[in-house]
Fold:
Amino acid sequence: MSENLGKSSIKEAGKSKDSQQGLEEAVECSDEAPQNQVKLESPSHHKVRRPHSSPARFVTAEELLETAKEVTNMALAHEIVVNGNFRIQPVELPEDSLEKRVKEIVHKAFWDCLSAQLGEDPPTYDHAIKLVGEIQETLLSFLLPGHTRLRNQITEVLDLDLIKQEAENGALDISKLAEFIIGMMGTLCAPARDEEVKKLKDIKEIVPLFRAIFSVLDLMKVDMANFAVSSIRPHLMRQSVEYERKKFQELLERQPNSLDFVTQWLEEATDDLVTQKCQPALPAPEGVAGSREPPALSPAAIQNHAYLRLLKWDHLRRPFPETVLMDQSRFQELQLQLEHLTVLGAVLLVTFSMAAPGLSSHADFAKKLKMIVKILLTDMHLPSFHLRDVLTTIGEKVSLEVSRCLALCGADPCSPGKETALRGQIQALGSPDNPIRRLMESRIQTFLETCLAWGHQKQLPEVPGGLGPVQKELEEVAIKFVRLVNYNKMVFCPYYDRILSKILS
Structure:
């Protein structure tokens, strides 16, 4: 590797998104990493019936530790592959925590000792030389194998034996060493750290300067770790399916009951489809061409239906299937997003069909109305959120916006009875059994089911009627869902096939 790659190759740590495109092109089932991760609720104390497909057995502490290590490694590899925005973040200790207070006390004692040593006459450099040694190791860890010239420069200038001799003879220039260190940091840092490294040159006091140097070096370590992650992602992607399957098989050999909840999950999906096929066809809802036929009872249809059931999972009371456990937070977030879209779409459908059928063609009005409802539903899944109360407010806002738009268009205003009916219909959406809300859920379910059935096709199917106002958001959720499901199928298809062959036989 040529020497001139010193700065350019490492500076790419700040631009590691280039590998994300390759990741998504390699397998179309990678997740686009939700911006706001959903925090999983604490496990419920309800007793859950565990399937009895495997006999219980005792395990040793060593087996538990080894299993935990394997699960951790598998989870990390899985996260790097499916999360294109995966980044290692600097550790932030909680405010007022004991660990943070201890760390601050120890650091203050160290820097006070360094200041006292440098203030002696003549100065003592014991602590300073130790710091230079740590800095040397850190700078060398940033180098790539081909950076021979940079490696020689660092080891030559930061030669601890030579620095000790200079200190003993009173010839050590600590400021000159700091200047070299800052220059080398500027050569090796990512573009995002250029400004922080530049500010180091303005610090004249030795102790504050060294403190600032170590602070920036800690950030550079995180940058280099993320650079390494982005570098290995394309290679990991090609091997991730086999790697995860192998690790899961090792886990299964240690814990034979590691597929119990998967078996129960697939059995329930099968029973659900059998029940649907045995039920008489329901009449088509008004405005819909015909009722949706239940999917054929094939292994692929059962798997697709099982994954759709994960979008309505009771995370507080039911264990998640083992094979999708690492993606539980992603499925939970998709579930919350779909619930939000269901209510949003239902409100817009009621508004455009009841009070303003002609106003839906006015792009500005439709966009403004959608934004208002979306904002009011932002905190929908917080414990303090009361949907019925918020829907009352939404009804008032929608009624007001409809009246304003009708006035601007020169149309006749809604009658008081029609406005009251509109507000009542919107407020009624607070019930999960509301027919319009259930219709929206059914159509969203149909759309996602069709997306799964389409497999790896580039284009998504058309959204069912009534979902047009939330089409963009629904397609974004569908893309994440399909990619996640397809990747999971690739990894665990041998296990699913074996289980389903027993169920169907």
Notes: Residues 55 and 257 are 7 Å apart (CA to CA).
